[in-house]
Amino acid sequence: MNVYVEPNRNFTEEIKYVWQTFAFNKTIKINFVDRPEQADIITGTTADSHVPVATGFYDQIGKGLFGFSNFFKGDGWIRDEQGTTDYLTTAFYMLTGLQEYGAATTDEIGRFRFEGSYQYAFGTITQNLVQECFDRLVQELPPLTGLSYTPRKSQVFLSHDIDTVHGALLQDGYYLLRNFKLHRLWNVILNTVLQRPDWLNMDKIMQIEDEHSFKSTFFWLVNRGRINSWEVNADYTIQSNKIQSVIRRIDQKGWENGLHKSISADTLKEEMGKTGFSPVANRYHYLKFTLPALYDNLEESGLALDASLGFAEAYGFRNSYGLPFFPFNMKKRKKYSFLEVPLNVMDVTFQKYMKIPQEETAAEIIRFFEKNKYNCVLSVLWHNTFFTRYKFQGYLEVYKKVLAYLYESGYSSITPSEIITQYAAQQ
Question: 3-class secondary structure for the chain?
Fold first, then answer.
């Protein structure tokens, strides 16, 4: 497929980026040509353009206006000056997360608020809107309608952020004491004394996942201690023999380990050097980051993959796209060199933020998966603490129900290393 994009415009590289993402999504080959007469598809502002570009959008973002209310008038699509829907520019806005650039709506720890997003405003958080943009292009653009596309069966990316391993003594202990289950409290105390903390449960997690032929990734903190009343780093020392032994065992079994960027002044590269292994993937602790600083920091670190792009307050698509992608560097007008794997489902979202009853949680997650059975890598974060039968009792059963659904529905799991291999073709 030969594509011409009008050159030397403030949208040229941006539109090429979206076409490249589209091509990978649809498993087709796109060649950019220098002259319109060579093209199957012409993209730009000329009268013969198959795909008109909303130039006003690019003028606006050039002035630093990023809020979605500047572009979405009445619905969730960006239109050109004649009122034609610009699917490529809409996809670009969503992929890049531009609504978060310089956002004024942040929560108590400085995170972009879901309530300040277009997904909240239009009720689209569970919709794979970028995929819809691409699908509509295929349906409405004659040079594309004759082509055959095979949807990808969605895969699942399972992960666990290891924030605490010693918390069972106080948190499970308090639960058992309050509920007069003193015999079980004794077991928690004994395991702590014998240095077998209940929440150092990675072998248990791997065994549960292995029963369904799944593998997952464990993200580890390298810094310890409380930062303030809201933010706490690890309660374990990653360099200890016990923790390093667990990390090695995870690796030997074929599961993976990653960095869980702590709340500290350390750079990503500095924290990578403290892990005791060679991480290729990261997730930010508390999902605390801002855009574009997140992307700039990752680029500087040399990490190949990040898995932080999700809302704590809601499940779904923070950037309205279901597949891993290379983010776009707005300053340099080209792709970053690392993959971003959006986070879709997190245990704390249901338990703490949305307060969905536990007995309804598995069904809620499964409905989301049913809605997105194709063209997604569905990312699930289940903390090691939620495998307890005490303070967070019941959430282990929720996870098992979700795994059973995934297995019976034919999903395969995918790890960071496998994602990097499969998706490198986008670069």
Answer: CEEEECCCCCCHHHHHHHHHHHHHHCCCCCEECCCHHHCCEEEECCCCCCEECCHHHHHHHHCCCCCHHHCCCCCCCCECCCCCECHHHHHHHHHHCHHHCCCCCECCCCCECHHHCHHHHHCCCCCCHHHHHHHHHHHHCHHHHCCCCCCCECEEEEEEEECCCCCHHHHHHHHHHHCCCHHHHHHHHHHHHCCCCCCCCHHHHHHHHHCCCCCEEEEECCCECECCCCCECECCCCCCHHHHHHHHHHHHHCCEEEEEECCCCCCHHHHHCCCCCCCCEEEEHHHCCCCCHHHHHHHHHCCCEECCCCCCCCCCCCCCCCCCECCEECCCCEECCCEECCCCEEHHHHHHHCCCCHHHHHHHHHHHHHHCCECCEEEEECCHHHHCCCCCCCHHHHHHHHHHHHHHCCCCECCHHHHHHHHHHHC
Give the separation between CA 198 and CA 205, rounded to whole angstroms: 12
Comma-separated ranges of CATH 3.20.20.370 domains in the chain: 155-165+200-426
What is the predicted pLDDT for the residue at 186?
43
How far CA 307 is from CA of 216, 312, 318, 363, 377, in Å, comes to: 13, 13, 12, 24, 11
Bridge-partner residues for 156, per DSSP?
378, 413
Query: pLDDT at position 143, please?
Result: 84
Superfamily in which the 155-165+200-426 domain is placed by CATH: Glycoside hydrolase/deacetylase (3.20.20.370)
Mean pLDDT per segment of 10 residues, for the chain of length 427 residues? Answer: 96 98 93 95 93 95 94 88 94 97 86 96 97 94 82 96 76 48 50 62 96 97 86 91 96 98 96 97 97 97 98 98 97 97 98 96 98 97 88 89 97 97 79
pLDDT by residue (tens digit) across 38-54?
999 999 999 999 999 99
| pLDDT over 70 percentage in the chain | 91
Contacts of 55 (CB under 8 A, 6+ apart): 9, 10, 11, 45, 80, 81
